[in-house]
């Protein structure tokens, strides 16, 4: 397997909401896998990543709490981590049980040897100045392909030096778009191109 085929981008949703998507590269294709409603997506995504023999996971979900909860002598913010403030991201505390489930899932992955990192698709889009194509009030099937085409023409994409033409399937949801952006951050991380936000003692976000 090529190194980039060991990376998975995951837009993690609620456990039974049917809103979790995984994106990988396989044989020069972008491939999407989507959870089903009323089925436990966290069990599904854990088993799927093992089955696909992935080694690096980049997840759109909070994977740590503000540092004040484990080191109040150093950290003082009860709502936001440094990375959240730097990226204008939502507070992990606001997301409550979802954050706890994401942290639990990340711990399970790490126990079996996978590297798990937090990423933030909206931050990557903002970094590329492509916000007008990332309007989730519009249909993903219409804007998603335009966003991907813009990414493929960007300096960020060129810097990854893909030596082949990558084929994309039909975009069906914003969850798939976000999973692809997570994957893109993972490839950037592999190739030492990713940007890092936050404090290592509290939790980092890579884009």
Give your account of this protein's structure.
The protein has one domain (3-206): Nucleotidyltransferase, domain 5. The chain contains eight helices and seven strands. It has helices spanning 41-51, 82-87, 92-95, 97-111, 121-127, 140-152, 155-158, 174-190; strands at residues 7-11, 21-26, 29-34, 56-60, 115-119, 196-199, 203-206. A hairpin with a 2-residue loop joins strand 2 (21-26) and strand 3 (29-34). Helix 5 (121-127) packs across helix 8. The longest helix is centred in the last third of the chain and has 17 residues, at 174-190. The mean pLDDT is 96.
CATH class annotation: Alpha Beta
CATH architecture field: 2-Layer Sandwich
| Category from helices, strands and their pairing | alpha/beta
Shape: globular
The proportion of strand residues reads: 15-25%
Report the helical percentage. 25-40%
Number of domains: 1
Number of strands: 7
DSSP summary: helix tally: 8
- Strand arrangement across the biggest beta sheet: 3-2-1-4-5-7-6
């Amino acid at each position: 397997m090529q190194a980039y085929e060991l990376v998975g981008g995951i837009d993690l949703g609620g456990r039974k909401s049917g809103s979790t998507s995984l994106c990988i590269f396989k044989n020069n294709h972008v491939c999407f896998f989507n959870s089903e409603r009323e089925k436990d997506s966290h069990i599904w995504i854990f088993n799927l990543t093992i089955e696909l023999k992935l080694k690096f996971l980049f997840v759109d979900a909070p994977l740590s709490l503000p540092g004040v909860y484990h080191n109040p002598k150093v950290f003082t913010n009860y709502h936001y981590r440094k990375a959240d403030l730097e990226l204008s991201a939502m507070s992990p505390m606001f997301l409550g049980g979802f954050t706890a489930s994401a942290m639990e899932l990340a711990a399970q992955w790490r126990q079996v040897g996978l590297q798990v990192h937090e990423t933030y698709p909206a931050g990557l889009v903002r970094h590329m100045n492509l916000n007008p194509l990332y309007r989730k009030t519009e249909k993903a099937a219409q804007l998603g392909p335009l966003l991907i085409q813009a990414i493929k023409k960007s300096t960020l994409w060129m810097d990854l030096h893909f030596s082949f033409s990558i084929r994309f399937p039909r975009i069906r949801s914003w969850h798939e778009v976000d999973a692809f952006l997570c994957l893109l951050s993972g490839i950037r991380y592999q190739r030492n191109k990713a940007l890092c936000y936050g404090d290592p003692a509290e939790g980092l976000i890579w884009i």
